[in-house]
Description:
Layout: H1 2-18, H2 34-40, E1 48-49, E2 52-53, H3 60-64, H4 71-80, H5 83-86, E3 92-97, H6 99-103, H7 107-114, H8 119-127, E4 130-132, H9 137-146, E5 150-154, E6 160-165, E7 171-174, E8 180-190, E9 193-198
Parallel strand pairs: 3-9
Antiparallel strand pairs: 1-2, 3-4, 5-6, 6-7, 7-8, 8-9
Helix pairs in contact: 1-9, 4-8
Amino acid sequence: MIPTRFATLATVSAAALLTLAACNKPEEAAPADAAATDAMTPASTDPMVGGAPMSPNETIVANAAKASNLTTLVSAVTAAGLGETLSGPGPFTVFAPDNAAFEKVPAETRSALMAPAGKADLTKILTYHVVPGRLTAADIASQAQAGGGTATLTTVQGEELRVSAGPNNTWVITDAKGGKSTITQADVAQSNGMVHVIDTVLMP
């Protein structure tokens, strides 16, 4: 049942943040798909993204610049002129597409977006991945439970994202065009917000 999934996710998120003892659950209580559950478990103080430690004392842009799997996102943020904004106080919650997510976008579309003439469209897409405030996995779970199974988030771009429970204790984000993206790494804390890495670019 979906309510049970959300309750489980919220419990896991809260427990991991409050005490390291939550990592030592009895073996029989472990989910069947441990890898999928780990992806949604809140990150440790300095989680690794793209082989680099993400410091909670650095900004979204500074941390992303260190991650080898977020290089396309960083280039896009620079091309759109959003680096200064995402380095500001925020707080922001960013659903960050990794390099593989951008590879799913046709090459000609990526090239057009990265060109100066595509700046407005690129900015629209990138700001559609940003939600005001600092939302953890537990916050999303709580909103989804209150929303009958779906958390509806209003982005900086102005349109909405819908987040609901997916298979194997994952979160699935549905964009305005009906496209779906899965959160592959949740709760990467930043000095000015929170990052959740996703596997597909969201389209407004």
